[in-house]
Structure formats: structure tokens, C-alpha cells
Amino acid sequence: MKVVLAGDLDATEWQAWQAALAEALPEATWLTLERAAAAPDDVSVAVVANPPPGGLAPFRRLRLIQSLWAGVDRLLADATLPSDVPIARMVDPAMSAAMAETVLWATLALHRGFFAYQQRQRGGEWRQHRQRRADEVAVLVLGRGEMGRAVAARLRPQGYPVSAWGRDGGPLAPLLAAHEVVINLLPLTASTRSLLDARFFAAMRAGAAIVNFGRGGHVVDDDLLAALDSGHLRHAVLDVFRTEPLPPSHRFWAHPRVTMLPHAAALTDHRSAAAVVAANLRALRDGRPVAHLVDHVRGY
Ligand code: GLV
Predict the structure, then answer these.
(1) What kind and span of H or E run contains 175?
(2) Whose C-alpha lies nearest to ligand 1, atom 2?
(3) What is the model's pTM?
(4) Which of 112, 144, 263, 282 is catalytic?
(5) CA of 211 to the centre of ligand 1 (A)
(6) b/e map of 13-37 (b: 16 or more CB within 10 Å)?
(7) Residues 21-58: pLDDT tens digits?
């Protein structure tokens, strides 16, 4: 089985991936995009991490595109992608666990006001605020997939009342009004793009906080900035942005009510993800069902 590796990772990172993949599935041949292009019809699988648009077009005999990313929005946006080739998302328990840890950090810091203390330290201000219990801080998780479920399971034992909303979960506005911390883990699709807009923020409680660990395209940046500037929202924790890296001139960088991560809430783990890829490629080879296939119409 010849596999092409395509994506925007740097050379060191590809080497780490290639080593992990070769160890997990030694019987396959792992080729870079350049090497695979010499004999494209020999290649039956593409393993990708944001491949260049059009980069997979020469490979006309692909039987599977396996993403190393959980979110496949950028992949599906490539109009040259062969529409009849199945795409599998990355569903990696280690990645879901990392996401649950990062959400726990953000939730704890919002609940206890640690981000506000950080600001006060910078201003040389020694002042305590009221300490609340976890059961007083209701958390709403948007997304009921792998990530959403892992996050809810991590938060509940800490004492937070957790609700979850999915795409067929009924009206969102009453839930937004009833929770203090809202965590977005939805996939980016035609129906969720720009969901976090002025209407959405207005439906949130005064003094609530938003955590966006989904995609930058979920958020209308100016609407979020307006909600933070007016004080309607207390804080935003953001990991993902419409343009990444976030341009230096963007207001999020220095906003006192914004805490940012560089798309690092949950990275794909080489070791565990390589095992997930190997299991899927073996299933393909042996004619068994491939796991975590993307529904092109649904968009994830
Ligand atoms: C990260 O954002 C991913 O989709 O894997």
C-alpha cells in the first residue's frame, strides 16, 4: 500500500509523523507529495494535514483520504478534491483528553476569576473577589461529538452543572441565557459558520464568558469585540481564528478581556494518532469498514 503524506507541516514535524506512521504500519510505503507525484496511480491512500489546495488532484486512484486533523472544514473547502473518495476524520482519544484538559483550565480560570487576577497583577492591584463554588457556574458545551462528550465528562466530576447542545438540539437562545460559560466545540459547516454573532452574544447572560475551541469561522470577530467592549461578556478564551497565525494588528492580541492560545488547545498526538491511522488503513486493505468517515453533505 502506497500512501502519500500531504500537508502544511514543517520538515521536522513530517519526519516525526513518518516515523510514527512507519512504526504503526510498517508494511505501507510512506511518500512525500513530491515523491508520490512521480507515480501517482500507484498511490491508494492520502494522509493529510491541510494539504495544499489542488495537491491531491494528480492522485486518481485514491481509495481513502485520512485526515490527521479532527476538523475537516479546510479539506472540504478544496473544490478540486475528488468527491467520490471517502474522507476519514481524526478521532483520537489522546486529542479528546487534551481538549478536555484545556477546557477544564479555561473553565476553572473563568469560574475563579484567575484571568482577572492576572490583569490585576499587571496593574499592580492587590484585590480579592468573591470565591464561588463550581456548582454555581453553569457550563454549556456546544457540540455533542467526540470532543464535546469528552469535555462534559471531564467537567461534571468537578461539580459544574453541564448542559450540551448539538445541531439538532432545539433552540439555542434559552440555553445561552441560562449558562455562564459557553464552550464552542462545533464542527465548522455551512450551518455553523458565523454562528457566534451579535445575536448569539446578546442572547448570552450579562457577565458570561465564551470559550472558542472550534474554528475561527464560527465567530464574527467585530461582534465579539463589541460584546467584550460593552462589558456584556466578561471574557473570551480563544484558540482558533479566521486567519492563523492571527495578524499582529488584530485587536484580540492586546484586549484585556481576551485570553489567546495559538491553536494549541488540542494538538494531534503523533503516537496515538498513528495507531488510529494504521487501524483505518488495515481496515481498508482487509475490506472492513473504515472508521469516522465524513459525510460530505453534513460537512463533518
Ligand atoms: C484541530 O483543530 C483539528 O481539527 O485537529
Answers:
(1) helix 173-177
(2) 71
(3) 0.95
(4) 263
(5) 16
(6) ebeebbebbeebbeebebbebeebe
(7) 999 999 999 999 999 999 999 999 999 999 999 999 99
The CATH architecture one would assign to domain 2-92+268-286 is 3-Layer(aba) Sandwich (3.40)
Tell me, yes or no, if 270 is annotated catalytic. Answer: no
Q: How far is the CA of 194 from the centre of ligand 1 (A)?
A: 18
Task: Kindly list the averaged pLDDT for each block of 10 residues, start to end, along the chain of length 300.
Answer: 93 91 96 94 96 94 97 94 93 96 98 97 97 98 97 98 93 98 98 97 98 98 98 98 98 98 95 96 98 94
Looking at the CA of residue 67, tell me the nearest atom of ligand 1: 5
Q: Ligand 1 pocket by C-beta < 6 Å: which residues?
A: 69-71, 90, 268
- Give, for ligand 1, the residue of 268, 277, 292 to mutate: max count of ligand atoms closer than 8 Å to Cβ: 268
- Ligand 1, residue 69: give the atom nearest the CA: 5
First CA to last CA distance, the chain = 26
Domain boundaries, the chain: 2-92+268-286, 93-260
- Give per-residue pLDDT as tens, 123-146: 999 999 999 999 999 999 999 999
114: closest CA among 97, 96, 141, 132?
132
| Catalytic residue from among 89, 154, 167, 215 | 215
CA distances, 196 to each of 33, 137, 225 (Å): 37, 21, 12
How many whole angstroms from 206 Cα to the centroid of ligand 1? 30
215 is catalytic: yes
Q: Are 284 and 114 in contact (CB under 8 A)?
A: no
> Could you say which of 2.60.40.150, 3.40.50.720, 3.40.309.10, 3.40.50.2300 is the CATH number of the domain covering 93-260?
3.40.50.720
